[in-house]
Amino acid sequence: MSYKVIRASMGKNEDNEWLGSTVFTMDESPVEYEISFYSKKGKDWDYSLHFAGEPGEEEEFLKLDARIEEDDDLFDDLLDAAIDTIPE
User: Fold this and answer.
1) What's the CA gap between 70 and 55, in Å, rounded?
2) How far is the C-alpha of 19 from the C-alpha of 3, rounded, in Å?
3) Which burial class, exposed, middle or buried, applies to 8 when counting CB atoms under 10 A from its CB (0-12, 13-18, 19+)?
4) Which of 45-82 are b and which e, b meaning 16 or more Cβ less than 10 Å from the residue's Cβ?
5) Is the dihedral of CA 69, 74, 75, 78 positive or negative?
6) pLDDT 10s digits, 15-49
7) How many other C-beta atoms can be found within 10 angstroms of the C-beta atom of residue 84?
């Protein structure tokens, strides 16, 4: 499986916690997914996956969510896409 990042962002909220997201597609599918990231200190990350636009098939969504849960490289790549948007 390959992915393509459409857009990403990362920043801090008023409580100095990290919030970010990456919108992406998987393989050749036109369905856009968005993964949202949250961390209190930028170390341990929680995430939430949802459709970014029009919903696709629920079965594919559940497969992707399971893959993100198991595939540390994919998770890290999507997180890095958001982190890379932080101005230095």
Assistant:
1) 23
2) 22
3) buried
4) bebebeebeeebeeeebeebbeebeeeeebbeebbebb
5) negative
6) 999 999 999 999 888 999 999 999 999 889 999 99
7) 11
53 three-state secondary structure = coil
The answer to whether 22 touches 8, Cβ cutoff 8 Å, is yes
User: Distance between CA 21 and CA 18 in Å, rounded?
Assistant: 10
Kindly report the pTM of this predicted structure.
0.93
Phi and psi, residue 16, nearest 5° = 65, 30
Pair 59, 67: CB distance under 8 Å: no
Three-state SS at 72? helix
Please state, in angstroms and rounded to a whole number, the distance separating the CA atoms of residues 24 and 2: 10
